[in-house]
């Protein structure tokens, strides 16, 4: 058993001296590597001769999500459009910004089943090479995670075979989310359209 996160405070409680521990988290390891951990949050205190205890339990899980990000910037109905473009006299895309509402599909084929949308912004953030800043919500619209989302904010150098980006939060079933995403481009064309495979590993309750 591991105990972490104890913060003590003292206050005057109606003339009595009050000592309260807030945020004492007890983690019970469940066994082998890869299994979930039980998590129990205890808050307890003493007011005079009275003692009270409140507990909230939950289980932290890790989910593996696999889908394809379809970024379409060409044609009559693009799913990502340019919203800012600075003076390009230096011969680079540095500063270009795009707003995206890209479909998330179950296979690399963009005509395959759509299970969500990638909604947010990305921009060219490097002056010397190709690297994007991604600030995107991945909103799921089908299956178990319908209505839930994860948020990725990080650096994405698209010329690398595999890119890693952090998960910084989520909603719905992904509240308190943390983890990482691995992105791999499986198809692209000269117009800038691309199909990107994602493997996402996310811890949540």
Give a short synopsis of this structure:
With 205 residues, the chain is an all-beta fold.
Task: Describe this protein's structure.
- With 205 residues, this protein is an all-beta fold.
- The protein folds into two domains: 2-48, no CATH class; 63-204, Allene oxide cyclase-like (AOC barrel-like).
- 0% of the residues lie in helices and 63% in strands.
- The protein contains no helices and 13 strands.
- It has strands at 2-4, 7-13, 16-28, 37-47, 50-71, 80-84, 97-105, 114-124, 132-140, 149-156, 163-171, 178-188, 194-204.
- An eight-stranded antiparallel beta barrel has the order 5-7-8-9-10-11-12-13.
- Residues 1-48 and 51-56 have low confidence and may be disordered.
Are there runs of 5+ residues with pLDDT below 50, and where? 1-48, 51-56
Mean pLDDT: 81
Identify the quaternary structure here.
Answer: single chain
CATH fold node name of the largest domain: AOC barrel-like
Number of helices: 0
* Total of domains: 2
Number of distinct beta strands: 13
Strand content: over 45%
- Looking at CATH, the homologous superfamily of the largest domain is Allene oxide cyclase-like
- How many strands, what sense, and barrel or not for the largest sheet? 8 strands, antiparallel, barrel
Give a quick set of tags describing it.
2 domains; 205 residues; AOC barrel-like
């Amino acid at each position: 058993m591991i105990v972490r996160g104890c913060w003590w405070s003292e206050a005057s409680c109606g003339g009595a001296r009050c000592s309260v521990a807030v945020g004492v988290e007890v983690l019970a390891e469940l066994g082998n590597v890869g299994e979930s951990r039980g998590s129990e949050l205890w808050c307890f205190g003493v007011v005079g001769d009275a003692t009270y205890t409140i507990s909230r339990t939950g289980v932290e899980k890790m989910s593996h999500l696999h889908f394809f990000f379809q970024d379409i910037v060409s044609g009559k109905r693009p799913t990502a459009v340019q919203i800012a473009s600075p003076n390009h006299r230096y011969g680079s895309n540095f500063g270009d910004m795009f707003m995206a509402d890209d479909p998330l599909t179950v296979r690399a084929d963009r005509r395959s089943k759509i299970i969500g949308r990638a909604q947010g912004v990305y921009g060219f953030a490097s002056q010397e090479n190709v690297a994007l800043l991604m600030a995107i919500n991945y909103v799921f619209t089908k299956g178990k995670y319908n209505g839930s989302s994860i948020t990725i904010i990080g650096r994405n150098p698209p010329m690398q075979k595999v890119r890693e980006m952090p998960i910084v939060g989520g909603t719905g079933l992904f509240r308190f989310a943390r983890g990482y995403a691995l992105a791999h481009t499986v198809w692209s064309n000269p117009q800038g359209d691309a199909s990107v495979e994602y493997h996402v590993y996310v811890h949540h309750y």
